[in-house]
Specification:
It is a single chain. By secondary structure, the protein is α/β, with parallel strands linked by helices. The chain is built from nine helices and eleven strands. The strands form two sheets. The chain has an eight-stranded parallel β-barrel with strand order 1-2-6-7-8-9-10-11. Strands 4-5 form a two-stranded antiparallel ribbon. Helix 6 packs across helix 7.
Length: 282
């Protein structure tokens, strides 16, 4: 019995020490300097998927046709540590090949062409670095991290620092521990905590100020007055992003937008029409 008590006290002591270190590294309880975007942005979900394959360089190039200035893209890591723009775990839907992306080296993936509406294109799975090099300064980019890991955090931070895009790239994940890893790489990197629903607002109070995410995000179906009131009270509404908005709910958005949203490109025209009608009524 005494031995069990000693082990329990030891485990408790180690946990307490880890918690203390966590708060020391995180700068203690409080609010860090907020980084907000200059305007309410509408992120094009996976690029202009009406013109080109999702998450492709072509889908980003085609954003000019809708005058978008922000884009949401998905990030995964290949077996050899290359960060790529790709949504699915498996490549069947986008390449027509039954391959798990995490088990493939990039050299083997780039041999296959991306599919668009069932037909082969000239495009291939793009490296995140190629995108950042070409368009990093042109668009505000929301990167949805599909496979969070310490290795990915280090590689991602290195790329963003290389192209000096700390104020242009938002790193999003529902795993808070991954966002902490990002902040430990570089505190100036912008992070987004996804899945920030009304029943999770209390969590933010326990986050050390240097590890607090710069932005929060939630599904449209989770958006309600309680969450809105919380964000307004904390002066965080301009730091919130809503995604998963159905076409039929576009007209339920409150205008002018005080937060940010992610929309499929097919809904951009509908939103613009709704905004125009709202302006005319005033």
């Amino acid at each position: 019995m005494q031995r069990l008590q000693k082990i329990s006290f030891l485990v408790f002591g180690v946990l307490l020490l880890l918690i203390i270190c966590y708060y020391i590294l995180g700068g203690g309880i409080g609010e860090s300097q907020k980084n907000k975007l200059n305007e309410s942005l509408v992120f094009a979900h996976r690029g202009n998927t009406f013109k080109s394959p999702e998450n492709s360089i072509g889908s980003v190039e085609a954003l000019g046709t809708i005058r978008a200035n922000a884009v949401e893209l998905d990030v995964r890591m290949t077996k050899d540590g290359i960060l790529v723009l790709f949504h699915d775990e498996n490549t069947q839907r986008m390449l027509g090949q039954d391959l798990d992306l995490k088990d493939q080296n990039y050299a083997s993936l780039e041999k296959h062409k991306l599919l668009f509406r069932g037909s082969e294109t000239q495009g291939k799975i793009p490296k995140l670095e190629d995108y950042l090099k070409l368009y990093g300064k042109k668009f505000t980019t929301y990167l949805d991290i599909k496979t969070p890991s310490n290795q990915l955090a280090k590689a991602l931070a290195k790329l963003i620092e290389k192209y000096r895009l700390e104020d242009k790239v938002l790193i999003a994940s529902s795993e808070y521990s991954f966002l902490v890893q990002i902040k430990m790489q570089n505190e100036s990197l912008l992070t987004v905590l996804e899945g920030f629903n009304p029943d999770k607002t209390w969590i933010r109070s326990f986050m050390p100020k240097h590890f607090k995410p710069n932005f929060t995000a939630c599904l449209w179906e989770k958006w309600n007055d309680d969450l809105k009131d919380f964000l307004l009270d904390k002066n965080l509404l301009q730091h919130h992003i809503i995604y998963g908005i159905p076409t039929q709910d576009i007209e339920k958005l409150e205008l002018p937008l005080q937060h940010h949203i992610i929309l499929d490109v097919e809904d951009f025209e509908l939103l613009a029409l709704f905004q125009l009608e709202n302006t005319a009524k005033k």
